[in-house]
Amino acid sequence: MPPLLRARGLEPGARALFTTRRGGVSRGRYESLNLAYTTGDAPEAVAENRRRVAASVGARLERLVEVQQVHGPAVAVVGREHAGSVLRGVDGLLTASPEVWLAVYAADCVPVLMLDPARPAIAAVHAGWRGTADGIVPAALRRMREAFGTVPRSVRVALGPAIGGCCYEVGPAVARTLERAAQAAGAPLAPPSGSALPRRVDLRALIRAQLAACGVPPEHVEAVGGCTRCRPDLFFSYRRDRVTGRMAACIRLCDSARRE
Ligand SMILES: [Zn+2]
After folding, report:
1. What is the pLDDT of residues 116-136, one digit of tens each?
2. Alpha carbon 205 to chain centroid distance?
3. CATH of domain 4-162+221-254
4. How many A from CA of 200 to the centre of ligand 1?
5. What is the Å distance from ligand 1's center to 21 Cα?
6. CA-based nearest residue to 155, from 194, 190, 125, 117
7. CA 139, CA 157: separation in Å to the nearest integer?
8. 230: CA distance to ligand 1 center in Å?
9. DSSP string, 126-148
10. Distance from the alpha carbon of residue 69 to the mean position of ligand 1, in angstroms
11. pLDDT by residue (tens digit) across 151-206?
């Protein structure tokens, strides 16, 4: 069984998990638990890896809803009728149905899982630098409010393994874009002395600031796993390896969390 990182802050309302690169059958650059078909890995290896993760969490793969990630700020509300489908043009999924699993894939980008235990409702979001700069996490929260009446102060969030401030070096254009996003969230980034722009960015810290600006209490936000680039034994990292696998972030509402 592959080892999985649990987002305990979202329990017991949801089952929320992040995979590592361990416990699969893929070889070479994809060793071993690559879960994305879009990477160039052997499809039969990815299929076996997905079966292993599904078996270890007791999930049925035909209940999975995925996105064809485009690094944009769009999210979609889905229900049981979307089970088994891949939605195009969005990087985040929201649902109030306990009958589907939501999944996003990442290798450095930030996988974000959210639970509104009051409604209840959940979300899974893929946030790279573009999505973060474009505010995909605040957009997902807004959409949760519109669709489900979610109040930010009750939302619980888990930020999965992602490239850390230790390793994520950015050029001037990306630094300017992310600095604007950070200022909009009321938490300017810290550039090195003698410089106007940050050279390294902690995307998870920026997303934390965005969540706080939306009204999510900081103590409701947990980071699960460390820096993907620092841990080649544990995580895939696009920045480190370029051709590599993807980890998954998966979430499902627990039946017992439903009110009716
Ligand atoms: Zn690092």
Report:
1. 999 999 999 999 999 999 999
2. 14
3. 3.60.140.10
4. 11
5. 16
6. 117
7. 14
8. 4
9. EE-HHHHHTTHHHHHHHHHHHHH
10. 24
11. 999 999 999 999 999 999 999 999 999 999 999 999 999 888 888 888 999 999 99
